[in-house]
Structure formats: structure tokens, C-alpha cells
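Take the subject:
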Amino acid sequence: MREISKGANVSLTALSEDAGAVVVSLSWSSVSGAGDADVSVLLVDGDGKVRSENDFYFYNNPAAADGSVQLLGKTPTGSGDEDRISVDLTAVPEGVERIVVAASQYGGARFGDLDDLRMTVADRSGEPLVGFSIHDAGVETAFIFGELYRRGEEWKFRAVGQGYETGLAGLATDFGIAVNEEAEEADEEAEEAGDAGGGLDAIEMAKAPDAVPAAETGPVGPPATEVPAPAPEPAPVEAVAVPAQTRGRGRGPRTTKKKVTLPKAAKSSLAENDSWRPARLFPVPTLKSDKEREVRATSVLLSVMAQVPEFGRRLTAAFGAPAGRMQTFTEVSLPHGDTPRRPDGVIRVERAGKLWTALVETKTNGNPLRPEQVQQYMDIAARRGYEAVITLSNDVALEGAAMVDVKIDGRRKHKVSLWHLSWAEVAHQAQMLIRHEGVGNAAHAWLLQELLEYLQHEQSGCHGFQNMGASWVPVRKGIEDETLACDDARAVEVVESWERLIRQVCLRLGGELGQKVLPVQRVRRGSDPQARRTAAAQKLCLDGRLTAELRVDGTSGVIAVTADLRTGKVRTCVDVPAPDGSYPLTTVKRLVRLLAEAPADLHVESLVEGGNGPRGTLERLRPEPGDLLPRGGAALTGFRLSLIKGMGNTRGNTESGFIRSVDEAVDRFYQGVVARLGAVEARAGRRA
């Protein structure tokens, strides 16, 4: 990969023969784990302006109808987050001269608060081509990381690194987007008050009347003059700075088509009693063997991917597939020595007369992938000029760790990428589309719903990560008996299983909320993931605890999850800061009122400078909130809210299983505590 500095540019075609489609990645890290930013992409013409509202892509408008741009969302890395964007350069309209990639922050945060700001561009196979790091970020609240631009028949990349102290609004005006100035002022006031709203919601799309050509070194242009009517912003809660349930997100740019989502509440049933089961498009009760489950699951998934373009594109764009006509096949026979091989499926995408092909190997019911089988498919793909092999199983891939080990013949000119997909990720993407983001028509939404029903059926075998592995029981017993050695390799295996579980918990919760939920990694960029897991395993041997942190997009707090193998308890907690300048007694009384509908067994602990203060259950504190006041006049800095739940005994996902107990603990804490605090804040804002 070539590293370039600010202002430099490089030809993509000179770096790769397969640069017709690229994946752009923006990444950053934060020591606190709370740092985040929103990615946006602008398509601009020769005048340096957007042509229309459809040239601005962000979380409310994540994909272009022609497949040229698609925001793939955030993925956790070993040191922070990575936001990826799929760009099919062959599909970019002729009138577009530059593709500007930017990011913005909200809630008063600055890019100087983040570490390791970086942009990379990879080709269709995932091979990194060029990278650019930003080292001079300070008070800026928006940044143009870089841009892709045309020069004759080729595309080039320029490292821009241009910051804006005026946030996304200042950046937007440079590209012909009119900003509601009064709404912008409301955003600034909300930021000063600690509110996370604003940002993209204050922006309206409009073509600037006097366009000025952009220079080679970066975008320029006069701010637009149109000022739409202001939109009111909700006021923050005065009593306690609680995590907001969602960041303020208005309508933003309008999309060209109305998207269809299904209501969460099912229609009333016409059945006479509960024994009547609705007819399903993909029935599963007759499945009796693992082979039958694999064949059925592969066929069901691939057929829905081909029929629902948004879904098929969502699953394949991250693997370097272009936007185009997709066809899928099952049980295809391919020559391999004396005995033909039959991969479970094949995905083919046609774009501008070119074919992108991926072989699919499927496992269900927790069965592991076989390295020798995947190796054969990699060899077949390389010989036949295919682009990828996709493995699909209940397991969840970890950053920095492959699901199977394969050998790559470096003498071959053609590169084949190996990717992994979890059934939990498939279900997550289906739920995001049919419940939150929408698809093109009602029939597509229904197909996705039927797919989701199939995946969630107990007989399908497509339930995601469900087993902590063979090392779970001996490690847990070794911790209970205090006989587990700190260098026991089985402890590392348990830590890896814990990370897989947490990533799946994030997928499930994110699908329910329609928000990005990511594990927080408080490590520096460049640290070795395996070394980090080894350190976590040693800590597990010493104190018997598995720990993790989750961040829900739009909330100001981080949810901490601790599984204590010595006590058999799972603890979920969040820290809530106290507002500045308020009276301690008033603050604790209002906190207790905010938690009026929270579980009675919620533990509330006051936090003071340099330590912890009094604590108690919510049931005991409701009549006497003053019991939370710190002793000796210590300054009250915030509160820690915790729920404690019994830990499952078995390693699986049964009623008494550990995996289910962690999943239920996180769900109960979010729904019973975090979401209620956010709902109270939202109601207070509407009343204001």
C-alpha cells in the first residue's frame, strides 16, 4: 500500500488493475472509547457543486439508486471504528467530476479529540491501494478526508485533510448546500448544553446560484444564500445529563422514492386458536439433517438476495462486488482434479459486460467450516478467474483473526479474496431494511420478513453464535477452583468466544433499535489483536471476569458488561454525569424521578471526585433519595446505574445457557434503563 501526504495525489489505475470499484475506509480511535463521527459523501460537478439533493449521501440517504455509492456502515477494529464506503467508479454519472469523502462530529466534539485519523482506498478484492493519515486535527468539527476525481479516462485519489471549525454546515455551503442559519444557531446552543442533536438535520439541499470552479488542491465556492425556515430543536433535560436514546435526526435530504418498511405490530390474526400456524414461504419443520439445513438455507438466502436488490447489494458490496444484475445458483458442479467439487452456492453480478463471481460455502447448526474444503474452493476460484470465496456459518468473525487458514499462491496473478459472513449478520441486515431503512416495494419487504422468520425458526440451524466452545467448562471450573494457570491457552479461546458473543449482541440490539451498536476497544491503533486477547486471558485468570463495553449510536454513555465467573453474575452498567452548577439534593431527587419506571432492583451509586459514594437499590432510594448524597461534602460528579443478573450455567444458548443470559442482561438494561432515560429526555425536549 502506498502512503501519501496531505495534498498529494495518485492514479488508482496505476496502483491496481482492478480499480473499477473501490472501498473507501475512514477510521479513527479514541482512548475513552466514546469518540465517533458521521461519514458523508458528496458527488460534485465541474463547478465544484452538487447537482441535486441526490448527490449527498449520509445515514438517512445511504445508497445511490445507480449503485455508484453505498455507505456500508461502521465496523469495530482493534483500536476504534472503521466506516466503509463502496464506490463503483464505473457507475458514477458522467456529470460528476469529484467524489468528496468527509466526516463530521456532533455534540460539541472536535476531531482533535480523536486519534489515528486515517483514510484508505482498497480495490474490489479488498487489497489496500493507498493510505493517508491526518496528524494536525484540532478544533475542527468537520473534515474532508480525501476525494476521488476524474482525469481523462482514469480516476485519481487526492489526500485533502481540510478541516472546518464551522462543522458540517460550513463544509456543506462549499458544495452548494443551503444551510438553515437559525437551526445552525440552535445546534450550537444544544451542543453547549450537552445535547447530541443537530448536525445534518439543519441542512437543506439547494443548488448554489453562482458556482465557481474548484481548484486542484481542494473544494472552494461561495456559500449558498437561501435560508429556509428554521426548525425547532428539542431542549435538553436540565436535571441530569442522561444518555439520549437517539441523536436528533430530521428528514435531511429527501430520497427519490418512498421506502417501504413493515410495521412492528403484527396484524390481528384470523385464526380460531393458537394452534393454527400461518403459512410460510420457507417452511422448516421437515428439515431432519444438517445437509438438508445447509441446502435449504443456502437456497433461501441466495434466492432472496437475487430478488431484493437492496438486500443482495447490502451483503455483497462489502466483499467488493459491483452494483449490477445479480443471479445466484446452488449446487454448481466445478471441475477439480479427478473429482468435481460442488460449492453450496455461486453469486454472479454483471456490470458493464463484466462478471464478478463468488463461491459460497455454507454451514448451519453450529457446524465448523473445514479448512481443506475452503482451500479447494479458493484454488478453483483462482484457476477460473473468480473474485471471491464467501464462507457462511453461525460463527462470528473477529478482527485480525481468519475463520479458516488457507494458503495463497503468490505466483498467481489473479487474486481471490476470502470473506466470512455470520447468519447473525444476515438477520441483522434483513431487519435493518424491513424495520428501519426500507426497501423498494412491499413484496420485497415481505420476502425479507419471510427470510427473517426462516432464520429465526428453531429448526433452521441459522441462529448465529451459540456455543462458547469446548474450553468454556474447564476454564470456568478452573476459575471456581482457583486452579487455572495464567498461561493456559484455553483462557484465550474463551476470550475469543466472548468477543464473538459481544459482537453478536451488538448486531441483535442494533437490528432492534435501527441504530449502530459497536463494541468499544480502548487500545491504540496498530496494537496486535492476539496480544490484546492474551492480556485479557491473563486478567480473566487473575480476577475471573470477562468485560466488554458497547456504544449505541446516538447515546452519550457506554454500556459496560461484566461476566463474573466466580460469583456467577452478569453486571450491566452505565455512568451518567451530573450537570454542572446544580444542587446535589436536587440532582439526586430528579434522577430518581427520571428512573420512575426503571426496574426496582436497579443499583444506583453516586460518583465523587477520586472515588465512589453511597449506593443502594432504586426500590430503597425512591422514598429516601437523599441517601445518595456524598459524605463529608464531597463534590458529586455523576452516578453509576447497574443491573445484576444470574449467569447461565451451560456454554450454549439454551434457557440455562450463558450466551442467552448475557443477551437478556444487555436487552433488559437497555430497555429498562437507557431507553427510559432517553425517552424522558425526549419528552422534556418536546414540552420545552
